[in-house]
Amino acid sequence: MNVRQNMISLSILALLTVSFAQPSFAATTPFTDLAQSGAKDKILSLQQQGVIKGVDDSKFAPNETITAAQGIQLIVNAFDLSLAAIRFIKAPQATDFFSKADNNAWYAESLIIAGANGLELPADLDPNADWTKEQFIHQLMRVMETKGNLPMIKLVPMEIQDDQELTVDYQGSIQRALARDVIELDKEKKLHPQKPITREEAAEMIYNALAYLKNHKPLN
Questions:
Q1: Tens digit of pLDDT for each residue in 60-100?
Q2: Closest C-alpha to 206, from 71, 18, 7, 64
Q3: Can you say how many angstroms the Cα of residue 97 is from the centroid of all Cα atoms in its chain?
Q4: What is the DSSP letter of 88?
Q5: Distance (Å, rounded) from C-alpha 70 to C-alpha 127?
Q6: Residue 135 pLDDT > 50
Q7: In the chain, what are the domain boundaries?
Q8: Of residues 210, 181, 168, 216, the one with CA closest to residue 49
Q9: Partner residues linked to 167 by β-bridges
Q10: Interatomic CA distance for residues 129 and 66, integer angstroms
Q11: DSSP tag of 146
Q12: If you write DSSP's letter for every residue of 39-65 in order, what string do you get?
């Protein structure tokens, strides 16, 4: 296949990616397993917008943890990341960005989009490993701030009782997430950063991040 054919194939791939990434507003059946969830309204709102999906048509499984691949897919979908504005010499594969990825796995497209859009993910990322709260928060904030072209903010660091558990490289992202009301600490002012993040927690953070962007105009 020559370069021209490659470019045509990639243009088609980009169009398909955009169509899959855009929210669907078709009628949906509300998840039935959110009665005990404090984030029920936010999760249902994201469901109606087509931003998130359940484990099946009626179940969201709010207490299940998510893997790195699932977290990346959530962020890619929530912020409409795609390959539309990116050109390649050859068709990209997930392993071009992440050595441990499977090019035939369900997550391959999301990892390609994430890698091509410059998400700060390690090259040796394990797509099947559980993601911690701090890992998800860090990536969410990076994409949110880039997508929204948000200004730098002067922070008065909030006290976090378990800050000794934080990874140093994630501290800034977490403080900004607190300042922008994307996350909140528990009653004991703890974050539990090393705890695997649940689907409910991830969905609520995404809702809060999108709400923040909606209410704050990007810089020109």
A1: 999 999 999 999 999 999 999 999 878 888 889 999 999 99
A2: 71
A3: 17
A4: -
A5: 8
A6: yes
A7: 3-215
A8: 210
A9: none
A10: 8
A11: H
A12: THHHHHHHHHHTS---SSSS---TTSB
